[in-house]
Amino acid sequence: MDATACNPMSLVGRRVLVTGASSGIGRATAVLAAALGADVVLTGRRSEELERTRGLMARPDAHMAVAGDLKDAAFVDELAASAVDGGRLDGFVHAAGACTVVPVGVVSPAVLADSMSVGYGAFMLLMRRLTRKGSSNDGFSAVAVSSVSAEAGWPGGAPYAGSKGAVNAAVRALAVELAPRRIRVNAVCPSHIRTPLFESLTAGAGESAKAALAARQPLGLGDPEQVASAICFLLSGAASFVTGVCLPVDGGYLAQ
Ligand SMILES: NC(=O)c1ccc[n+]([C@@H]2O[C@H](COP(=O)([O-])OP(=O)(O)OC[C@H]3O[C@@H](n4cnc5c(N)ncnc54)[C@H](OP(=O)(O)O)[C@@H]3O)[C@@H](O)[C@H]2O)c1
Questions:
Q1: Number of domains in the chain
Q2: How far apart, in whole angstroms, are the C-alpha atoms of residue 206 and residue 222?
Q3: Which of 134, 159, 187, 242 sees the fewest Cβ atoms within 10 Å?
Q4: H-helix or E-strand containing 184?
Q5: How does pLDDT run across 4-54, given as a tens digit for each residue?
Q6: Which among 23, 42, 188, 217 is the best mutation to test ligand 1's pocket, defined by most ligand atoms within 8 Å of the CB?
Q7: Is residue 26 part of a domain?
Q8: Which residues contact 15 (CB under 8 A, 6 or more apart)?
Q9: From the CB of 115, is ligand 1 less than 6 Å away?
C-alpha cells in the first residue's frame, strides 16, 4: 500500500507554492507540507528567512526559494513562471499578508491600496497565472489565509477586514468558476495566532491586554502549526470534495 493510500493527507509527489513562507503561518505550512511529502516553492521578501525555513524542512534540497515583493506585479509574474518551471503545481497557499490598524479618520487612498495589494491583489494575480492551462495539474488546490476579521469587527480594522472579506468572496466565486476543471479553492480564517505579526500588533499592549485577547478565544491563543494542519488538510486528497469554504481556525472565537 503506498503512502497516499495509508494517509489521505499525504502530499507525496505534489508541488506546492507557499507565499509568506519566511515567517509565521506560511513557514509552519511549508514545514508541514514538506513533512507530508510535498516539494515546496517558498516565497517572501527576506531570502535569509526563506533559507531558515528551508533548513527546517524535510529534504531541504527538494525545495526552491524565490525572494521578492508581492506588491510588484512584475515579480508576481516572475514568481509564477519560476514556480511552474520545475513542473506543474498541485497546490498554492497564499499566507503572505500584513495588518495595519487604521482608524477610519485617517484612512487614505494609499492605506486602502496597501491593504488590498498583498492579501487580496497578489492572491488574484497568482490565481490567474497558476490556473492557466499547463501551469497546474488536475486536482489543483488553492488555499488563501484569510481571517476571522472578515466576519467580526474590531476598532481600526476596517481596511484589513475589507481585504479579508474580499478574499473570502473571491474564494467562493473562484471555487464555482473553477470546479468544472476540478480546481478547488478554499480559505482558512485564523483568529489570534502566536506569530511575529501578532507580536508586532500587541507589542505595546502589555501582558494583561494580551491575556484578554487570549481569553476571548475559548481555546486560547493559537499556534501557526495549528493553522498549517488545516491548510494541509485542504491541500490534500482528504479534502477532495471540499471547495468554496472559508474555514475558521479560531479556537472557537466565532462560535460565541
Ligand atoms: N497571526 C495572526 O494572529 C493572524 C490572524 C488572522 C489572519 N492572519 C493572516 O495570516 C497570514 C500570515 O500572517 P502571520 O501571522 O504568519 O504573519 P507573519 O509572521 O508576519 O508573516 C507574514 C508573511 O507575509 C510575507 N509578506 C508580507 N508582505 C509581503 C510582501 N509585500 N511581499 C511578499 N511577502 C510579504 C512576510 O514575508 P517577508 O517579510 O519576508 O516579506 C511573511 O512571510 C496573513 O495573511 C495574516 O493576515 C494572521
A1: 1
A2: 18
A3: 134
A4: strand 184-190
A5: 568 999 999 999 999 999 999 999 999 999 999 999 999 999 999 999 999
A6: 23
A7: yes
A8: 38, 39, 40, 41, 83, 86, 87, 88, 89, 90, 91
A9: no
Phi then psi for 26, rounded to 5 degrees? Answer: -65, -40
Mutate to test the pocket of ligand 1, among 53, 195, 253 (most ligand atoms within 8 A of CB): 195
Tell how far the Cα of 47 is from the centroid of ligand 1, in angstroms: 15
Is the CB of 45 within 6 Å of ligand 1?
Answer: yes
Over residues 63-115, the pLDDT tens digits come to 999 999 999 999 999 999 999 987 899 999 999 999 989 999 999 999 999 99
Answer yes or no: is the C-beta of 93 below 6 A from any ligand 1 atom.
Answer: no
* Nearest protein CA to atom 39 of ligand 1, as residue: 45
Selection from 34, 43, 42 nearest residue 11 by Cα: 34
Does ligand 1 lie within 6 Å of residue 159's CB atom? no
Which residue's CA is the closest to the ligand 1 atom numbered 47?
97
- Exposure class string for 187-199: b at 16+ Cβ within 10 A, else e: bbbbbbbbbebbe
Cβ count near 8 (within 10 Å): 12
Specify if 256 maps to a domain.
no
Annotated active-site positions, please? Answer: 147, 160, 164
What's the rounded Cα separation, in Å, for the pair 211 and 134? Answer: 49
Residue 105's domain comprises 3-193+223-245
Categorize the per-residue pLDDT at 3 as very low, low, confident or very high, splitting at 50, 70 and 90: low
Q: Is residue 251 assigned to a domain?
A: no
